[in-house]
Amino acid sequence: MHGVILYCRAGFESECAQEIAALAASHGVAGHVRALRDDAFIEFVTATPGEDALPRLADPRALIFARQALPVVAQLRDLPSRDRIAPILDALRAIDARWAEVLVEAPDTNDGKALATFCRSFGNALVGAMKRMRLIDAAAPRRLHAFFPQSDKVYLCAAEPSRASPWPRGIPRLKFPREAPSRSTLKLDEAFLVLLDENERERWLQPGMSAVDLGAAPGGWTYQLVRRSVRVVAIDNGPMDAALMQSGLVTHVRADGFRWRPPKPVDWLVCDMVEQPRRVAALVAQWLADGACRRAIFNLKLPMKKRYDETLLCLSILREALGAKGDIRARQLYHDREEITVFARRTH
Ligand code: SAM
Predict the structure, then answer these.
(1) Is the dihedral of CA 173, 126, 79, 20 positive or negative?
(2) What are 322-332's pLDDT values in tens digits?
(3) Rounded distance, CA 228 to CA 208, Å?
(4) Is 301 an annotated catalytic residue?
(5) pLDDT tens for residues 238-289?
(6) Residue 178 maps to a domain
(7) CATH number for the domain including 45?
(8) Cα 263 to averaged position of ligand 1 atoms, centre (Å)
(9) Protein residue closest via CA to atom 14 of ligand 1
(10) Residue 114 sits in which domain range?
(11) Which one in 199, 273, 280, 304 has a CA-CA gap of 20 to 30 Å to 34?
(12) Domain-located, residue 176
């Protein structure tokens, strides 16, 4: 098989498929998708090896619904349970490359969870065998992913660390802070990690900066800003967490998030209001176009049907408002459910 494996949230295989098909078409790559609902991964199979095109498709930064995207270098089926390592080593010998690192992964599903213990112990055995064969070299340019959709089938994939998600299964491990007012806090924490690079996080999240949080209660997102010593105006008719208010960095305003505007521009707008996604996209686009905020991170709660179409529509609302000045990045985060998270800013 020549192609790309993409990991996604279970139930979003169709959106992931539509997206990779569109990306492939934009690069002039012919191929087709193989996907099954709730598998939490899809395959995009190309007709030819496509050495030039595959790296451009295997780039999760260019995709919203894929947590990871990896070029496949070999696919093995019917692995014997008594010795899965030998056929994998044979395939690796044929590929004739060294690997900086090895990740053994399973899909993010209940069946995949059952494979987690196997992946761990098999990973140790595989790395040991590869070391003995001198197939591991920290200076090598690519990382090997052995992706097991089931225990007798594996895709061997070659990731370029500069493009691929750095986290196993494309899932950043975040710890829920005990004092955070809600689990939603992890969404904004993950958004900062996934949608911004290290340099941007340092420059754009500095103590003393200002933010507005629309739909803030009870304060999980506000908490992430306060943690970074950012001052927050929290807009919500609902109550804010009392301990968070004691930080002295939060002003709670009971108002309608669709009407309220700050007296002067703020560094950040964040928004987690449960509302029609196109309404939220238009609101944020207006704030950015008016210069009311410099950057925004917001959630778009997707409808039950036509989730991909609605995503495209929301992004087009933002693009239209920001034009060439827009920098828009969107991703379905691990902590997102029926939603995606978007970062947007004006570049000048
Ligand atoms: N981000 C919050 C957190 O981490 O704790 C959770 C926000 S919750 C998903 C959505 C919030 O949006 C609710 O508290 C609701 O009161 C608020 N909300 C919905 N519509 C709103 C509006 N028009 N103006 C202000 N707040 C609104």
Answers:
(1) positive
(2) 998 899 999 99
(3) 9
(4) yes
(5) 999 999 999 999 999 999 999 999 999 999 999 999 999 999 999 999 999 9
(6) no
(7) 3.30.2130.30
(8) 21
(9) 217
(10) 3-170
(11) 304
(12) no
Peptide bond into 218 cis (omega under 30): yes
What distance in angstroms lies between residue 316's CA and the mean position of ligand 1's atoms?
24
Same domain, 67 and 129: yes
Residues 158 and 303 in one domain: no
For residue 55, name the pLDDT band (cuts at 50, 70, 90): confident
212 lines ligand 1 (CB under 6 A): no
Smallest CA separation from ligand 1 atom 3, residue: 220
Q: Tell how far the Cα of 250 is from the centroid of ligand 1, in angstroms.
A: 16
Give the Å distance between the CA of 222 and the centre of ligand 1: 11
Which one, of 107, 199, 322, lies nearest residue 342 by Cα? 322
Q: For residues 132 and 270, what is the distance between their CA atoms, to the nearest angstrom?
A: 51
Q: Would you say the CB of residue 240 lies under 6 angstroms from ligand 1?
A: no
| Helices and strands in the chain, H and E counts | 11, 14
Amino acid at 247: S
Three-state secondary structure readout of 254-321: CCCCCCCCCCCCEEEEEECCCCCHHHHHHHHHHHHHHCCEEEEEEEEECCCCCHHHHHHHHHHHHHHH
Q: Which atom of ligand 1 lies at the shortest distance from residue 258's CA?
A: 23
Q: Is the pLDDT of residue 49 over 70?
A: no
- Report which protein residue has its CA nearest ligand 1's atom 10: 273
Residue 7: which of 78, 58, 77, 75 has the closest Cα? 58
